[in-house]
Amino acid sequence: MAMDALNQIVGNSPRMRELKQNLLQIAQAEHPVLILGESGAGKEVVARAIHALSSRREAPFVGQSCLAIPEALIESELFGYEPGAFTDARESRPGLFEQAEGGTLFLDEIGDIPLSFQKRLLRVLQEREVRRLGSTEAIPVDVRIVTATNAPIEQLVKEGGFRSDLLYRLNTFELRVPPLRQRIDDIPALVEHFLRKHGARYGIEPERPGDEVMQQLKDYPWPGNVRELENFVVRWISLGAEALIALDKRVALSFEAQDSNRRWLSMTMSEIEAEVIKMVLHDCAGNKTLAAKRLGVARKSLYNKIERYKLEL
Ligand SMILES: Nc1ncnc2c1ncn2[C@@H]1O[C@H](COP(=O)(O)OP(=O)(O)OP(=O)(O)O)[C@@H](O)[C@H]1O
Ligand SMILES: [Mg+2]
Questions:
Q1: What is the structure's pLDDT at 38?
Q2: What gap in Å lies between CA 171 and CA 153, rounded to an integer?
Q3: Ligand 1 contact, 231 CB (< 6 A)
Q4: Is the CB of 178 under 6 A from ligand 1?
Q5: Long-range CB contacts (< 8 A, 24+ apart) of 295-301?
Q6: What are 30-44's pLDDT values in tens digits?
Q7: Residue 41: CB within 6 Å of ligand 1?
Q8: Considering every ligand atom, which ligand is closest to the CA of 9?
Q9: Residues with CB under 5 A from ligand 2 (ion)
Q10: What single string gives the DSSP state of each residue in the chain?
Q11: Which segments of the chain belong to CATH 3.40.50.300?
């Protein structure tokens, strides 16, 4: 059982073994867990494993990205509402806290929740009860909170964008999912995993990348981490070696200028991400919808990154 859940997390590099070890130790506890890691690194995979390894495994796992909820709806989404709470509220609806009763509530992109909402969330965590919008009745909730973010949350706290008291509520346990470039030993196993996951759909046995291609994959910095590798494998299944061209194109501009891809290794993940976004936007002639699709991120997330990195077009 435990092994099954852990095996959902592909990768046995030293960094991942350490992560799995920590995960096993904290999964059984009831305390909140904050999962940190770059975009696409596998934070949700880890969150699901925590739930599967806990005594709550038979109860619901409810996952939600805070970025995907419009700011005005975040309260009603999480806490639910009663008829008349707002114009469109015609019926009663339980929020995500109630839906996760007895189980785990996974809130992704927690670093992006509005400051105005943070205090309310903190109160719910302290009191372990929610009030639906438009109701005064307190509903007790028994939910384990797992959150994740790729934002520099300590930095956000310093800058006043995230409440420190809320952070201390959320990070009783902290797990860091290392970026793919720090565990390139995992790449062959991940490629194999994704070939099996996506190959079946095509009804053919997909070709395995040879040693040379595998080396190229290990040299690439993977700014989009495991998600980007998964996208690559999907392209590889239908395009073969041509899929590598698309991979190279993203970083080609800088490769040409610097004539060495080692340059990426001395950059921070944020710098690499900013640079890749700039290049893709340039490639897409500033079309953000297209750029978001190419980068494999939600448009809202792309807008946030453009703002965060102050990228001028
Ligand atoms: N170790 C892993 N083993 C198997 N699949 C993985 C692993 N890590 C990530 N994936 C897959 O890669 C994709 C991205 O992972 P996930 O959604 O967990 O990333 P994330 O860190 O939550 O990303 P974001 O910051 O964008 O929310 C998913 O399809 C997931 O199944
Ligand atoms: Mg996620």
A1: 92
A2: 11
A3: no
A4: no
A5: 295/224, 296/40, 296/224, 296/227, 296/228, 296/231, 297/39, 297/224, 298/67, 298/68, 300/67, 300/68, 301/39, 301/67, 301/109
A6: 999 999 999 999 999
A7: yes
A8: 1
A9: 44, 108
A10: -HHHHHHTS---SHHHHHHHHHHHHHHTS-S-EEEEE-TTSSHHHHHHHHHHHSTTTTS-EEEEEGGGS-GGGHHHHHHEE-TTSSTT--S-EE-HHHHTTTSEEEEESGGGS-HHHHHHHHHHHHHTEEE-BT---EEE---EEEEEESS-HHHHHHHTSS-HHHHHHH-SEEEEE--GGG-GGGHHHHHHHHHHHHHGGGTS-PPPP-HHHHHHHHHS--TTHHHHHHHHHHHHHHHTTHHHHHHHHHHHHHHHHHS-GGGGGGS-HHHHHHHHHHHHHHHTTT-HHHHHHHHTS-HHHHHHHHHHTT---
A11: 2-177
Q: What confidence score (pLDDT) does residue 95 get?
A: 96
Query: Which ligand is closest in space to the CA of residue 41?
Result: 1
Provide the β-strand partners of residue 147: 34, 107
Residue 300 CB–ligand 1 contact under 6 Å = no
Supply the residue whose CA is at minimum distance from atom 7 of ligand 1. Answer: 42
Atom of ligand 1 nearest to the CA of 301: 26
Give 42 Cα–ligand 2 centroid separation in angstroms: 7
pLDDT of the residue at 240: 87
Residue 225 CA to ligand 1 centre (angstroms):
8
The CATH number assigned to the domain with range 2-177 reads 3.40.50.300
For the CA of 177, the nearest atom of ligand 1: 21
pLDDT at 193 over 80: yes
User: Does the pLDDT value for residue 3 go beyond 80?
Assistant: no
pLDDT of residue 1: 60
Structure token digits, residue 2: 């435990």
116 C-beta neighbours (distance < 10 Å), count: 10
